[in-house]
Amino acid sequence: MSKKKIHIALVGNPNSGKSSLFNCLTGLNQKVGNFPGVTVDKKSGNTLLADGSSAEIIDLPGTYSLYPKRMDEWVSYKVLMNQDDEIKADVIVAVADASNLKRNLLFCSQIIDLKKPLVIALTMMDLAKKKGISINIPELERELGVPVIPVNPRKQKGIPQLKKAIEQTAGQLYQAPVRDFIENRGLAATSIEQVKGLFPQISDYTAIHYLINHESLLLNNGIQEKIENIEKQNKFNPTKTQAEEIMQRYARIKHVMQQSVSEPDPLQKTLFTERLDNLLLHRRWGYLILLAVLFLLFQSIFWLAQYPMHWIDLAFTTLNSTLSGILPDAWWSDLLMNGLLAGLSGILVFVPQIMILFGLITLLEDTGYMARISFLTDRLMRNVGLNGKSVMPMISGFACAVPAIMSARNIENRKERLLTILITPLMSCSARLPVYTIIISLVIPKTYLFGFLGLQGLVMMGLYLLALVMALIVSYVAKWFIKIKEKSFFILELPTYRPPRWNNVVQTMINKAKIFVTDAGKIIMIISLILWGLSSFGPPQRMEKVSQHYQQQLRQAGADSKSINAEWRTAKLENSFAGILGKTIEPVISPLGYDWKIGIALITSFAAREVFVGTMATLYSVGNEEENNVLLQDKMKAAVYADGTPVFNLASGLSLMIFYAFAMQCMSTLAVVRRETQSWKWPVIQFVYMTGLAYVMSLIVYQLFK
């Protein structure tokens, strides 16, 4: 008979090592979704316990205490208070940072007083040791009354012992301590007694939370009124009760620390972390180092990705050339080579760059430098109506605007949150990377300044910095129009510098590549196939007229038919449905330096920016069977206007990159903005201002460099 599956809730302070422990316990057995009814990420995974039984682990959002302020903290709070309809935890695993034990024990002590089955996983033991902190684990267990297991997820240490403790706690071999961590009844004894009359099974501390937050809990109207009456009768003061509780908890934590923890003299020499922060957070050097880090990041995308990208492109070119010599001259052969394979090559060729970008960003996060970027830029953010908390969504926007906008929910101030949502899509996301890469390779020479500064890498970094500067300008202007007045505070805990977790970096790179291929790839493939149809067919009478004209010329020309066939292919494309669409909008986009083919790409890439490359691949492949063995980049480089001038020159290339840097060409982003703001007003404003900004800036750039 199989054992019942155990459900484990993983909780802890931010930066306590909770995510590392979750990844260690679950490995690749993870799935990501949303918590019911909210846009907060829900990570869950499966693991096997010591006895071989299966357990589901739910990674709850990080929180500092049992008094929630943000939406994600409310998610954790409701699970711990047993007020979540979907998630019922059999065991709570609280992750505590051994190097910051005093602060972490506040949250742990609150969970202890809820009388929940609890196991404390003590992380960062190696860091505590470096700081000279020694923890007597058996004594700490006696003081707290719950199992305390030291773990090191990075080195897989303590994991079997943690699983054993979870299994024993779920089997009720460990009972919740009878005595409260603090004397909760001393806070509001009469009120607690009366609430426990309504809920006899709850602890004293749970009763306090019913008094403070009953409006947000799953209670019927009758119970709500009774608790409200208890508050009024006893003149219950939530703020005073909370303040008294926190003071009592820290007094008790101080006693626990004296009994079980040995700490060094606080006047000991400055740690490596502090010395490094003096340099990296310096008012001048800090910004120069940040620019250097960003340059290396973007230059590395070219250095490391150029060879695998070339191999992938060459493989598809060779495959196309081989198939063109084997397959018959039929419509389905054309669909396979110029629709399906052209679209697929437009997806896979940029996978190396996507993987490298996300790998490098993960390295910055893992080492602790990403949090320093937030701290470093807080003063700049405040000048434009934001604060340091806006930096993380903006940096995340370099990867993808959708999760970045969702992460803005951590910003308590409504005005700053709205401003962050409005400007985050200006960050150059990974979807823009394929566009930047192919245009830079076409119009920017592969030269080096001073022998080591790659011009292409500098242009790439310039595009990212330009997007950031424009985002700050837009925020500065928009803050005068959004009439919301709230005070905001920026409190950030700087994590200790750590060596990167290479397994985590590799896993992130693989996962992001999968997401790009499956999610973005679906859109690219669908649009590529639709575009093949629009490019291969047109109004019957119009296409017939073109065929008759060139067939007559071929009969007259005799053997000399190569140039006429090339003109015929171009004419067929121009008179196809796609060509008619491109020609229709050409007068609007020609001042920007674009031809009708680029116009088609602009339209198709409104679904997703990365579709641009797939569109170019399809348009330059349809009807060009003789050039199936030519790389897309070479086809685009050879494209000319009727007067012989190149379509892709410095002016048009820069103009096109500026357009993609600023334009709102992502349906998914607009949808998530609608969901986060609960209004169509802000997505419409966002679409209008970004598209207008893209057009004006592209026009200026083209006219300057023409």
Going by CATH, the homologous superfamily of the domain at 6-170 would be: P-loop containing nucleotide triphosphate hydrolases
Question: How large is the share of residues in beta strands?
Answer: 5-15%
How many E strands? 11
CATH architecture of the domain at 6-170: 3-Layer(aba) Sandwich
- Helix/strand class: alpha/beta
Head-to-tail CA distance between termini: 78 Å
Helix content: 55-70%
Oligomer: single chain
Rg, Cα atoms, Å: 31 Å
CATH topology tier name of the domain at 6-170: Rossmann fold
Unreliable runs: 32-39
* Shape, principal axes of CA atoms: elongated
Main beta sheet strand tally, sense and closure: 7 strands, mixed
pLDDT averaged over residues:
80
Strand order of the largest sheet: 2-3-4-1-5-6-8
Number of helices: 30
Textual characterization of the structure:
Among the domains are: 165 residues, P-loop containing nucleotide triphosphate hydrolases (Rossmann fold), CATH 3.40.50.300; 78 residues, no CATH class. It is 61% helix and 7% strand. It is built from 30 helices and eleven strands. The strands form three sheets. The protein has a seven-stranded mixed β-sheet, sandwiched between helices. Strands 7-9 form a two-stranded antiparallel sheet. Helix 5 packs antiparallel against helix 10, helix 12 crosses helix 20 and helix 13 runs antiparallel to helix 26.
